[in-house]
Amino acid sequence: MSRKRKSQLSARERFSGNVRAVRQANGLSQESLAAAAGLHRTYVGSVERGERNVSIDNMERIALSLGVSIIDLLKDDDES
Amino acid sequence: MSRKRKSQLSARERFSGNVRAVRQANGLSQESLAAAAGLHRTYVGSVERGERNVSIDNMERIALSLGVSIIDLLKDDDES
Fold first, then answer.
1. Which residues, at least 6 apart from B57, have a Cβ–Cβ distance to it below 8 Å?
2. Are residues B54 and A55 in contact, defined by beta-carbon separation less than 8 angstroms?
3. Interval A42-55: pLDDT, tens
4. How many contacts does A have with B, using Cβ atoms within 8 A?
5. Greatest Cα-to-Cα distance within chain B, rounded to the nearest angstrom
């Protein structure tokens, strides 16, 4: 999800990459995830690009809509 | 840290309780933690009371200042 070494990834980078990976693995569009989480599609897109300093409440809404825990979305690839 | 069952705690509730617990375990005042994280003391206090919808960047700053990972601060008591 980045050419940086995993240990250098910020929490924001790990979260954004994991949201996209889990969403795609679940076969969901950004629209579907956004609708399930009560968020706007463009907001989900900007979260996945790491452009948003996303809040803990929205992190949890996204995690619940993806069927994973907020902790799962903060792990490095090699921890998931 | 709450009379709710652990499984019912929101991410915000788990984070706020864990920040306070780790800060106190480290013998740090709210002032010291705030200074280390580049935040205001009253902000740290409101995070610990669960009043703030804290952002992922500030969550990471707090975790780094406490010497733990953001994931540690989101765990339930029985996972830490």
1. A10, A11, A12, A53
2. yes
3. 999 999 999 999 99
4. 48
5. 33
